[in-house]
Amino acid sequence: MFGWKPCIWQVLPITKNYPNDLDAADVRHFLFMGVMTLAATRLIPMRKNKGKSIGACLHNHTSYIQNPDKTAQGELVSSYQCSPLTVDEEFLLTKRLYEQTTGRSQKSDVIAYQVRQSFKPGEVTPEEANRIGYEFAERFLKGKHAFIVATHTDRAHIHNHIIYNSTALDGTRKFKNFWLSTFAVQRLSDLICLEHQLSTIEYKPYRERQKRIVYPPKESNRDRLCGIIDTILAEKPGDYETFLQKLEQQGYEVKRGKYTAVKGKGQKRFIRFRTLGTGYGEDEIKAVLEGKAKHRPYQKKPSQEQPFQLLVDIQGKMAEGKSVGYKKWATKFNLKEMSKTLLFLQEQKISSADELRERAAAATERYHAMGDSIKAAEARLTEIAVLKNHIINYAKTRSVYDAYRKSGYSKAFLEAHREEITLHKAAKAAFDEAGLQKLPKVKELDAEFAELLTKKKAAYPDYRKARDEMQELVRAQKNVERFFAEEKETTEKTQTR
To answer: Is there a domain that residue 374 lies in?
Structure first.
C-alpha cells in the first residue's frame, strides 16, 4: 500500500489466540504513519482463547516463522539458548520454571513477543539480514531471554521474524513492557542498520503524514454551483439573461426578482448569488459579463488535519448512562487519539512521563510569561492614549479655564463653558493622580506608542506559537495520564477476578 519501507520495525504481543486476534491488535496496538507502519508502543495482554494451550500457541507461531519455503529450507534460522526444533517446548519449560521459582502462576495472556524487521530490496543479503536480526535481539534482550530469528525471502523485501520468550531464562522475572518500549526497539534497530550502512526510515511529523486511504473531497451544493458558474463565465455569455438561461440548461431552476436565486435538482431551498461569496454576487457577475472586471474562481482551501484531541473519560460517560455502543466508539476514538499522541511525543523526543511533565510545565510558564508581557504592553498603550487625550484637552481648555479663574469662578461663566472647564479639571486630576511634575510631549508619547504597538504585533506570532505548544504538551500529558490510569484499572480488575 505504501511501497517499500526500509527498516520497518514492529513489536507484536503473541497471545494464545494469535493470529485470530489481529483485528483487535489493529485497533489497540498499531499506529499508522503516512510513510510506514509503526509498531505497537505498548504491549497490552490479550484474552486467552478457549481450547488452546500455551504450548500449542507457541508451536503454531514458531513453526510458521520457520517455514522451509520462506527460510531457504531452514538455513536462515538462528536461535539463542534454544533449538529451532524444540523452541516451543523450551519456552514452555522456562515458564514452568518461573512458576516453581516464584510461586506465581501465569496471569498474563502474553506468552512471547515478536519483532519484525524489513530491509530495502537489494541492500542486504538474506544471511546478513539474519545476522543483523540476531545482533539486534542480543543487544535488546541482553542475553536474558531465549529467542529465535527467522529470515523470510518470499517477498520483494527481505524481512526478519524475531520471537523471544516473555519469561527470562533464569525463571525469576517476565519481560517488562516499559513505557514507550517500542520506541526503544525502533532506536536500537535504526542504530544497528546505520552501523551496517543500511537505510532507515526518515520520520515525518504526524501533521505531515498522509492517511492510508484518501477519499475524494465532498462537494456541497454551493461548491457545485460555484463550479458551474465558473464554467459558464468562461464561455463569455453576451448578457446576464443569457447567463441565467445557461444555468437553466444545466438543470437549475432560476427565480428572478430583487435577488436572483437558483435551485438544483434534489435541493429543497433556493440559493441566492450574493450568499456564494466574493466574486459570485449579481453585481460582480454582471461586471464580469460587461467586461468591467475579471472573474477569479473560488479556490477552496484544503482541510488541515486536526491535532490529537483529549481522550474520552469512558468510565465517567458510562456512569452517566451511555450505551455499550458508545463505549465501543469511545474505545476506538481513544486509541486513535493516543496513537497520535505517542507520535507527537516521538516527534518531540520525549521518552518519559517525567520529561513530558517538565516540558509541559516549562511551556505553560513560558506562555504565561509572554502573555504577561503583552498585557503589560497593552496596559501601557491604554495609559498613553488616555494621557495623550488629557494633555490635548488640557492644552485646548487652558485659556478658557484661565478666564474662568480670572472671573472669580463666576457661576455664569461656568454655565456657559461647563464642558471645557470639566475637561480641564479632569485632565488636571489625572496628572495629579499620576504624580506628573512635568507633562511629557505629545510627540514623545506618539513615538513610545508606535514602538510599543510594533513590539506587541511582533510578539503575537511567538505568543500564539507558545500557546499552541503549551496546549499540545498539556493535552499529551493528560492523555498519557488518563490512558495509563485506565490501563492500571483494567489490570487490577483482571487480577482480582
So the answer is: yes
Hey, how many other C-beta atoms are within 10 angstroms of the C-beta on 122? Answer: 9
Structural domain for 14, as ranges? 9-208
Q: Is residue 225 part of a domain?
A: yes
The DSSP symbol for 170 reads T
Return d(Cα 9, Cα 186) in angstroms, integer.
6
Q: Please give the Cα distance from 148 to 162 (Å, whole number).
A: 6
Q: What is the pTM of this model?
A: 0.46
Please determine, for residue 42, whether its predicted confidence score (pLDDT) is greater than 70.
no
Distance of alpha carbon 163 from alpha carbon 389, whole angstroms = 79
Show the CA angle centred on residue 455, arms to residues 453 and 458, nearest 5°: 110
Picking from 45-49, 383-387, 430-434, which range would have the lowest pLDDT averaged per residue?
45-49
The CATH number that applies at residue 189 is: 3.30.930
Instruction: Give the number of domains in the chain.
Output: 3
Cα Rg of the chain, angstroms:
36
Cβ proximity of 149 and 130 under 8 Å: yes
Each residue's pLDDT tens digit, 411-458: 999 999 999 999 999 999 999 988 888 889 999 999 999 999 999 989
> Among residues 272, 289, 306, which one ends one of the domains?
289
Sign of CA dihedral 23, 24, 25, 27: positive
